């Protein structure tokens, strides 16, 4: 299965911040693709909802030290 969600991320100030979040998301089992844009403060994540839930994705982002909200 493949599902996409967008996550709003608050608090990223440099490309190192966004890389940290992106790598954390990409390392998650069930995540097929993750891109974090610093300019828009958004992540787009493609994932298998049978393996990982969007609430877990939000938690992953928050564990890197930033605030996360689901956009869609
Ligand atoms: Mo550098 Mo981004 O400390 O927080 S990684 S600004």
What's the structural blueprint in terms of helices and strands?
Blueprint: E1 3-10, H1 15-26, E2 31-37, E3 42-47, H2 54-63, E4 67-70
Antiparallel strand pairs: 1-3, 1-4, 2-3
Dioxo(di-mu-sulfide)dimolybdenum is lined by residues 13-14, 16-17.
Number of helices: 2
What does the largest sheet look like? 4 strands, antiparallel
Side by side, the strands of the main sheet go: 2-3-1-4
Report the structural category: alpha+beta
Mean pLDDT across all amino acids: 97
Q: If you had to describe this structure to a student in words, what would you say it looks like?
A:
The chain has 72 residues and is an alpha+beta fold. The protein has a single domain (3-70), classed as Alpha-Beta Plaits (2-Layer Sandwich), CATH 3.30.70.100. 31% of the residues lie in helices and 35% in strands. The protein is built from 2 helices and 4 strands, in the order E-H-E-E-H-E. The protein has a 4-stranded antiparallel sheet with strand order 2-3-1-4. Strand 2 and strand 3 (42-47) form a beta hairpin. The two termini are 17 Å apart. The model has no long low-confidence stretch (mean pLDDT 97). Bound molecules: dioxo(di-mu-sulfide)dimolybdenum.
